Amino acid sequence: MSDTGAVPLVEIENVEKRFGGAGGFLSSPQPVVKALNDVTLTVPKGEAFCLVGESGCGKSTLARTVIGLHPPSAGEIRYRGKRIDNLSTRERRPYNQKMQMIFQNPYASLNPRMTVLQTLEEPLRIHRPQMSDAEIRDKVHAVMRSVGNDPAWGERYPHEFSGGQRQRISIARALMLDPEFIVADEPISALDVSIQAQVLNVMMDAQKERDLTYLFITHDLSVVEHFGSQVAVMYLGTVCEQAETRKLFSMPRHPYTQALLSAIPKMDGTGVNHVKMTGEVPTAMDLPKGCVFHPRCPHAMERCCHEVPTLKQNGSSQTACFAVEEGRI
Amino acid sequence: MSKVATFLKSDFVFRFRRDKVAVGSFIVVMALVLCAVLAPLIAPYNPYDLTTIDIMDSEIPPVWDKSEGDARFLLGTDPQGRDMLSTILYGMRISLTIGFFAVLLQATIGVAIGLLSGYLGGRVDAFFMRLADIQLSLSTLMVAIITLAVFQAAFGAELYSELAIFMLVMVIGIAEWPQYARTVRASVLAEKHKEYVDAARVIGMSQWRIMVRHILPNTLSPILVISTIQVANAIISEAALSFLGLGMPVNKPSLGSLISSGFEFIFSGSWWITVIPSIVLVVLILSINLLGDWLRDVLNPKLYKD
Fold it and tell me: What SUPFAM superfamilies does the entry give (chain A) (predicted)?
């Protein structure tokens, strides 16, 4: 595969996403939910880029915005340097083949009225009309085998499978068009713990074999440590820290990341060493002024209440925190 | 395994066999439909053939009336001297035809509109749903009576009697589309936020394909349920319109016009002209509705009783 050199695979630049707002004729305005605030991230080719954060912090919204299910309210998303967030369905088609998505709930992401074969054939029939029936069948069988599924399952319906099998089917669907970039929205959180490792391994094997780039959304930090090469930590619609996985786990900089990592249960007997946070996550309908984390931050100062910190390189990681910038942490 | 064998072994057939009411009403509906379809073969007379009708035979009571009954006419005759049995069979044929095609028309219009407004939402949705609200605020019969009366006055009774079946199908079909549109829209709204629709969008499918290939098949069970009920409703509407003289003409009676034609004789003792077609109509509607109720119970797992 030709290397594009300096141009990263996916760039997310100053993306904002707001839901609700202006009401139309005869309908009252809805409260505005600021799901994403000025998110800037760069996903280089070949990475397993993980997004972590607690529920409601906007990870899934970011994933869906990147893949084109939601148009961003502001900002740009670029694929290999080309802007893709403002394309029509037709113009987007070449990118649909390159970018695919794996969904969270394998019980909802497969059409219950279509057999496995129909589900897997469909992307090829749309994007590769020149392929013959035999070629399509061979391709489906090959992909099914590569994710550890029996090709003989083709005639069966999704409800006949277990969660892990279904998730492998939906991974197979995402791989049918030989994509370069896969967005995985919590692909293992709906699965049994015993199946999670298996599905994760299927995804890692696929990455090795096909030179894939992942944008992997999860709230499971042990998965990030095992799977990710880069991590971005999100809080309330903003990215607060981004670093290489090893560096982030060995030396978290942002106070939120520190609190998050301290919450991982430890088995080595060193005891609990929680960074305890006070208060609740504020609602995304009424964001705090300044740094969104300041009401709960142990290092918050006057400046944090007024100014919004931006993501900057601070030592080994990029952080959006004045305390780190000023060397207070 | 062939599709038929799979179907016969399915849960659906199993539950059907266990339910005596469902089996009973299914047999009755099938028997009546079969009689209607095969009317030209099994009816003793052709009620449309004027040469076989003798006015001298009018108002003969059914055979079990020993004093006046005539062995030629099992269920007696109507005021024109037509054999009641044959007329009822042919009339049921007309009623069922109108019911079936009217529902087909309702379903086509309603499903298309429901799918569009549910999936596209926004202005399209607002427009069609307000239209449906307006139409539902006028009763079907009122719309039908006005339309048919105007048509009859404008084109004359003769042309009207020729076009009666077509007009009834059109009027009943168009008047009841909101039932379908609302049901389908509700299911579409539930389906379109499921992840398989997002998956289809990520693959880059066109909106049409997503609507027709992915969402529509998942809204079929409510469509099936209301279709049975709507066939019964359409037959009732047709009977009511015919009873009011706006439906099928006397020379091609449906069940409704038969009931109506006997109504003026009911106090002179010729009860059978009204009562027998009424019983047939009631049995037909009741069986279809029971079947529809059963279908709704089976296809909606939330209503499982045991």
Answer: P-loop containing nucleoside triphosphate hydrolases
